[in-house]
Amino acid sequence: MKRRLWSGLVGVVVALAVGALIMLAQGYKPLSTYVALFQFSLGGIGPFTTTLKNSVPLVLTGLSAAVAFASGPVNLGQPGQFVFGALAATLGGLYIRLPAVLEIPLLLLLAIAGGALWSSIAAFLRRAFEMSEFIVTLMLNMIADFFTAWVIAFPLMDRKAFSPMTPQIAKSGWMPDLGLLSSSTLVMLGAVVLVWFVFHRWRAGYEWRMTGQNSVFARLGGCDIHRNFLAVMLVTGALAGLAGGLVVMAGPHRFIKGLGANYAWDGIMIAIMANNSIVGTLVYGVFIAAIQTGALGMELITNVPSEIAQVLQAVLVLIIVATREYTNVLLDRLSARRQAKERAA
Amino acid sequence: MNDLIALHNIVKVYPPNVLAVDDVSVSFCKGEIHSIVGENGAGKSTLMKLLYGLVPFDSGRIEFGGVNVRFRKPGDAIAMGIGMVHQEIVLIPQYSVWENVVLGAEPVRTLGRIDSRTAIDAVRSKIEEFQFNLDPLAIVDDISVAARQKVEILKLLFRNVSVLILDEPTAVLTPQEIPQLFAELKRLRDRGHTILFISHRLDEVLELSDRITIMRKGRKVATVEASETNKESLATMMVGRQVIFTSKRTPHQRGELVFEAQHVDWERGDGLKLLDDVSFSVHAGEIVGIAGVEGNGQFELVNSIMGLEQPTRGSFLVKGKDITSLSILERRKLISFVPQDRGKMGASLSASILDNAIMTHHRLEKRFSRWHGLVLDYRKARDFVDMLKERFSVQMASRQSDFRSLSGGNQQKVILARELLLATPFFLMDQPTRGLDVGSIEYVHGEILAMREADRAVLLISADLEELFLVADRILVMHRGCIVADLMTEKTTIEEVGAYMLGGRASA
Questions:
Q1: Pairing relationship of beta strands B482-488 and B474-479 according to DSSP bridges
Q2: Which positions 315-354 of B are in contact with A (Cβ < 8 Å)?
Q3: Does residue A10 form part of some domain?
Q4: For FRET with B292, which of A37, A39, A317, B310 sits at 20 to 30 Å CA-CA?
Q5: CB of A223 closer than 8 Å to CB of B364
Q6: A275, A213 in Cβ contact below 8 A?
Q7: d(CA A149, CA B236)
């Protein structure tokens, strides 16, 4: 635990240093750039709540990937499940009108169902034809992408708009403004707590973890690995779907072209950085959101282009993962050498 | 002194803190058979790998022919004339004997074409020189394990090594094949080769060696002349205390019928029968052993009983209940299971000790869950691990440590304890002492005998005949998927069982 914290911190520092070198090579001032970057994302309550709000799709898709990878299924379908969740919430918001206390939970549930529906296809194909979910979920991303593009360009297109998008959803389905903390942040935090509890305290979560680590052992121990596979696929699809629904309900309040952006791929990266830990996904998700949020402010007051944030993000992922593995090797080797010296003396 | 190889103060630590070789100094002479004995984990294999350049050592030095050497890779060692044959045989099964022997040192003609005639002649002359009785043109897949081992040795002799390191070569051989290997090794010694022989089988070591070095927990205990020692004193030095080689089995009345296999067949996709009409029974308070050379259907039998595979015909019954088509969870209500491979089937090495200890209990025992099985009660689970640790004296740093941080013996204790504490009538054990040291083996045997006292039915599959003779009441022999013999332990001998294992029938 302590070691994980340290290797993470070392990774972040090294990555920022490498980012600084890249900026130096480009002729920018790294220090003032970083100051600007973090001032706009973490410097005060206002920027921090914006960062938290921006972290919602990253953390939720990251959770989806982390739970899947730690339990065995290689679900790489978060992008598709995300847009299906978004589409389901949009459809509900367009055609169902209820008071907000009912409308918001309903739309969230629809988003969850939409994501789960999309991941269940991959789960079904695996069960029926032994098709690898790895490739199926990737392919389903394409289908989901083009299907939603078609939906917002034809049947659901807002005739008044200039680019493909749906009309706005019912106002009662908008995530309410709660002042400091956005309501979507609260939903995200609730999801993190719930997923942690399921994963670390429920019997199902125990079986998922054990299956992810050694499926033969879990199977011989009496775990129904087929049912667990289906459950994990549904839950992780649901999390990605929830992310999509929240983006619609908290943001543009409609499904616009390019809504999914890179959220889900960033989420998968975050899960990898966090080594599939749930708390780690939250921490790294917020951190990546801080860089993305700060990049816009940084562009305002320095002449560094916001694209540098993407470079920084890529460097972070590589270095944090490398540092984690290497710190372990290094620490092991150091203690081995110390002991050898003691014996030889 | 005519020391050919001298190791001085060698230390090796496996990261992070496993002290595998602890300040060992030992020397080997030219033309001797020198055995290294010790329990599993005593460091004997590691010591040899350090010499061979397979594993780097942390301090100390090695002298070879009076010169300081340090091999960075096995190739360097071979070039200097030191070769090692590993426990697992690593040959290309589709290639012929000569191809395997010359691989990596092929005589070539222009454009790099292999000069097969020269190669075959060279291999043949080596075979004749050492009287190995091999056909250079035979395909490795078709020859016996003993012959494959000879190919491994030949491979090294072809490269003109003068020092041969053999890592537990007899582990894969049947009792009948061992004398031939020993005769060949002695012939090699008489021609001036030095042979370093790693083993923990004391009878063999005494028969074969000139000198014996005993290791315990990474340290060298002593080097003795084989002619001046005996089995008991070797065992005492190895284990650090007296070991009893006789069975503690006491007469016990067997009870009702518990487990039954009825005409079980298991056919592979290509129609080969790996289990062929297997029928037998195990009673309460009875330990039935299954002997056989590995790969004669034991694996398929275990998988079919546990439900990883479906037999093509026949059925298994526990207490009269047909379990053949039950789910694994339903079977686990009746069967406790200790698999042969701890890391693959018996545990999850990267999960915590606690997570490993509650497997199966988490479903079968109501007290481990609340809210109708939704939530696991981790407090009860922690109490359970504490109890298990106490009762089975497991050495562990903490309940949350990785399972892999336990020693092999302690890992097996946790697995055994977990399965023992399931309230099942039938206990299936597949090589439960494989890879354990003598002390842990004694412990496991004690637990198996205690199960018999508690009137559980035990099916023990083992490749170790001594083990079966120590604990089993009845020994079944498997050969090519059939049960070829059903012998009462008191009325048979190791030789008789060995003959059944080899030929399928006693050929006395």
A1: antiparallel
A2: 327-329, 332, 337, 339, 344-351
A3: no
A4: B310
A5: no
A6: no
A7: 78
Nearest-angstrom CA–CA distance, A133 and A232:
12
**pLDDT tens by residue, B67-102:** 899 998 888 999 899 999 887 778 898 999 999 999
> Is residue B175 over pLDDT 70?
yes
CB atoms A206 and B306 under 8 Å = no
Domains held by chain A: number:
1
ipTM comes to 0.84
Beta carbons of A329 and B350 less than 8 Å apart: no
The position carrying tokens 């052993």 is B289
Which residue of A69, A200, A203 to mutate against B (max B Cβ within 10 Å)? A203
Q: Which residue has the tokens 């001797």?
A: B32
Domain that holds residue A165: 56-275
Contact A214 B329 (CB under 8 A): no
> Which domains does chain B possess?
1-81+161-240 (3.40.50.300), 89-160 (no CATH), 258-334+425-508 (3.40.50.300), 342-423 (no CATH)
Residue the block writes with tokens 């006693």: B506
With beta carbons less than 8 A apart as the criterion, state whether B338 and B426 touch. Answer: no
Identify the residue whose tokens are 């973090």: A38
Alpha-carbon span B285 to B458, nearest angstrom: 8
Strands B219-225 and B211-216: antiparallel
Task: Report yes or no: B304 and B394 within 8 Å, Cβ to Cβ.
Answer: no
Hey, are the CB atoms on B337 and A340 less than 8 Å from each other? Answer: no
CB-nearest to B345 from A220, A222, A341 is A220
Contact B235, B438 (CB under 8 A): yes
Residues of A in contact with B355 (CB under 8 A): 206, 209-210
Shortest CA distance from B329: residue in chain A: A222
Count of CB atoms situated within 10 Å of the CB of B399? 18
pLDDT digits (tens, 9 = 90+) for A207-238: 999 999 999 999 999 999 999 999 999 999 99
Both tokens assigned to B483: 């049960």
- The answer as to whether A173 is a domain residue is yes
DSSP strand pairing (B211-216 vs B321-322):
unpaired
- pLDDT for B16-54, tens place per residue? 667 888 899 999 999 999 999 887 678 888 899 999 988
Nearest to B440 by CA among B466, B464, B409: B409
**Dihedral pair phi/psi, residue B252, rounded to 5°:** -145, 130
Distance of CA A35 to the CA centre of its chain: 26
Flag if A336 and B16 touch (Cβ within 8 Å).
yes
Structure tokens at B284: 């309460």
What is each CA distance from B20 to A309, B220, B286, in whole angstroms? Answer: 48, 11, 40
Tell me if A343 and B23 make a contact (CB, 8 A cut-off). yes
For chain A, list residues with pLDDT below 50. Answer: none
Three-state DSSP at B29 gives strand
Residue among A17, A58, A43, A42 nearest A280 (CA): A58
Is the CA virtual torsion A5, A9, A14, A19 positive or negative? positive
pLDDT interval class at B401 (50, 70, 90): confident
Locate A29 and state its tokens: 């001032």
Residue in chain A closest to B377 (alpha carbons) equals A201
Cβ contacts (< 8 Å) between B344 and chain A: which residues? Answer: 214, 216-217
**How far, in Å, CA of B415 to CA of B430, rounded?**
12
Q: Is the dihedral of CA B360, B361, B362, B366 positive or negative?
A: positive
B60 touches chain A (CB under 8 A): yes
Which position has the token pair 């940084």? A298
Res B506: pLDDT: 46
Query: Exposure pattern of B276-310 as b/e (b: 16+ CB <10 Å)?
Result: bebebbbbbbbbbbbbbbeebbbbbbbbbbbbebe
Q: Are the beta carbons of B373 and A203 separated by less than 8 Å?
A: yes
